[in-house]
């Protein structure tokens, strides 16, 4: 107790030494922690450490201070390593001061005190670190919550308001009128979208949104078309719907609805994204089916006047021609004479009224057999 009393007489000097050494830690040399905050914390930490050395009844106050300090430093953005390095400076400073005020008769007592000092400082450091980590987790959860609030607003009624889009853009340093791509998926494909978004180098530029059964992932389109780490390249093997909000955030919700509709068109054979450009035929057929327009059944009924083997040949020929648009290429593919292909196309017109050489008429067959 006498040594502890002597240490308290040296408190101003220990505080000054502590602040000097902490300032030598690079992370403390900036403006994360003010000089007044650092000096106040130094004095309090050393004082409470000395009290805890004097008696265990003082421990709760030290641990309460450690809890407050850990949370405060976390919210100030100080790295954990820098914080613990500073906290553990208490031991060498207190120990050096103990050696300074002791004499030869205190040798045995000093040996015992070394363990006491280290134990108290270690408990203080552990409590500070635990509080710091808990605060960082809480901050991450708060940040995620705020992030989701901004995102959800874009897809709701507020998304129609310019201020909502501007607020989102400013919060994440984005341009509201820049084109955005959006992907949508369900079930296993949705899990793949979440995996893509969770990558450390993409978590800030890609945004997840969950609405009902769909998971949405959207991102600003890169200005450089050849950008190697473009987000859409990471979706190349995921059967999800992908659409573009060409006018920026104002079109995002509408593009999301398109992406969701496209994702519903995915089949087990699809190994990549479903887009309007590549799968418009499938989309058109699905929309007609939803309206009750049985365009496929109608075409099949018209062909029913032919024999089954003839129907098979007509289907084969028409499908090949619609895929390549060339009579000669179709003839080569089917190992037929060019005239045979033309005859079958004329027969198809007789039965269905569709002239395959007229694009607007051929489109009916394209969609019907999608």
Question: What features would you describe in this structure?
Answer:
The protein has 370 residues and is of the alpha+beta class. It folds into 3 domains: 2-141, Globin-like, CATH 1.10.490.10; 178-275, no CATH class; 294-368, PucR C-terminal helix-turn-helix domain (Arc Repressor Mutant, subunit A, Orthogonal Bundle), CATH 1.10.10.2840. Helix content is 64%, strand content 6%. The protein has helices at 2-9, 11-23, 35-54, 59-75, 80-87, 90-101, 107-155, 162-171, 187-198, 252-263, 276-291, 295-303, 308-324, 327-334, 338-352, 359-368; strands spanning 180-185, 207-211, 214-220, 241-245. A hairpin with a 2-residue loop joins strand 2 (207-211) and strand 3 (214-220). Helix 1 (2-9) packs across helix 6 (90-101) and helix 14 (327-334) packs across helix 15. The longest helix is centred in the middle third of the chain and has 49 residues, at 107-155. The protein starts with a helix and ends with a helix.
Mean pLDDT over the residues: 86
Task: Specify Rg, calculated over alpha carbons.
Answer: 36 Å
The helix content, as a percent range, equals 55-70%
Number of helices: 16
CATH arch. level architecture of the largest domain: Orthogonal Bundle
SSE run: HHHHHHHHEHEEEHHHHHHH
What's the CATH topology label of the largest domain?
A: Globin-like
Beta strand %: 5-15%
Biggest sheet: strand arrangement: 2-3-1-4
How far is the first residue's CA from the last residue's CA? Answer: 90 Å
Total E-strand runs: 4
Q: What's the name of the CATH homologous superfamily of the largest domain? A: Globins
**Domains (count):** 3
Dominant shape: rod-shaped
Low-confidence parts lasting 5 or more residues at pLDDT below 50? Answer: none
Level-1 CATH class name of the largest domain: Mainly Alpha
Biggest β-sheet: count, sense, barrel? 4 strands, antiparallel
Secondary-structure class: alpha+beta
Domain PucR C-terminal helix-turn-helix: 314-368
Domain RsbT co-antagonist protein RsbRD N-terminal: 21-144
InterPro entries: CdaR-like_regulators, PucR_C-HTH_dom, PucR_C-HTH_sf, RsbRD_N_dom
């Amino acid at each position: 107790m006498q040594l502890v009393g002597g240490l308290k007489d040296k408190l101003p000097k220990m505080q000054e030494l502590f602040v000097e050494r902490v300032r030598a830690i690079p992370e403390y040399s900036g403006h994360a922690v003010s000089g007044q905050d650092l000096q106040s914390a130094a004095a309090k930490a050393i004082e409470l450490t000395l009290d805890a050395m004097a008696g265990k009844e003082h421990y709760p106050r030290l641990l309460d201070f450690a809890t407050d300090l850990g949370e405060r430093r976390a919210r100030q953005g100080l790295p954990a390593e820098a914080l613990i390095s500073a906290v553990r400076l208490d031991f060498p400073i207190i120990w050096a001061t103990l050696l300074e005020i002791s004499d030869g008769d205190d040798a045995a007592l000093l040996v015992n005190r070394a363990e006491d000092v280290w134990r108290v400082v270690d408990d203080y450091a552990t409590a500070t670190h635990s509080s710091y980590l808990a605060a960082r987790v809480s901050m991450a959860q708060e940040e995620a919550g705020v992030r989701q609030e901004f995102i959800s607003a874009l897809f709701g009624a507020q998304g129609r308001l310019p201020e909502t889009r501007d607020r989102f853009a400013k919060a994440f340093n984005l341009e509201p009128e820049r084109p955005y791509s959006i992907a949508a998926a369900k079930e296993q494909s949705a899990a793949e979208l979440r995996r893509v978004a969770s990558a450390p180098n993409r978590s800030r530029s890609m945004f997840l949104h969950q609405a009902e059964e769909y998971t949405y992932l959207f991102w600003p389109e890169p200005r450089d078309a050849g950008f190697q780490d473009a987000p859409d390249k990471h979706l190349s093997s995921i059967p999800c719907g992908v659409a573009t909000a060409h006018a920026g955030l104002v079109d995002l919700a509408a593009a999301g609805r398109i992406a969701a509709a496209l994702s519903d068109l995915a089949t087990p054979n699809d190994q990549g994204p479903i887009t309007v450009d590549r799968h418009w035929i499938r989309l058109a057929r699905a929309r007609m089916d939803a309206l009750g327009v049985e365009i496929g059944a109608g075409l099949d009924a018209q062909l029913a006047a032919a024999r089954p083997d003839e129907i098979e040949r007509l289907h084969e020929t028409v499908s090949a021609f619609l895929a390549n648009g060339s009579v000669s290429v179709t003839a080569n593919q089917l190992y037929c004479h060019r005239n045979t292909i033309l005859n079958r196309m004329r027969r198809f017109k007789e039965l269905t009224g569709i002239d395959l050489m007229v694009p607007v008429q051929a489109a009916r067959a394209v969609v019907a057999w999608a």
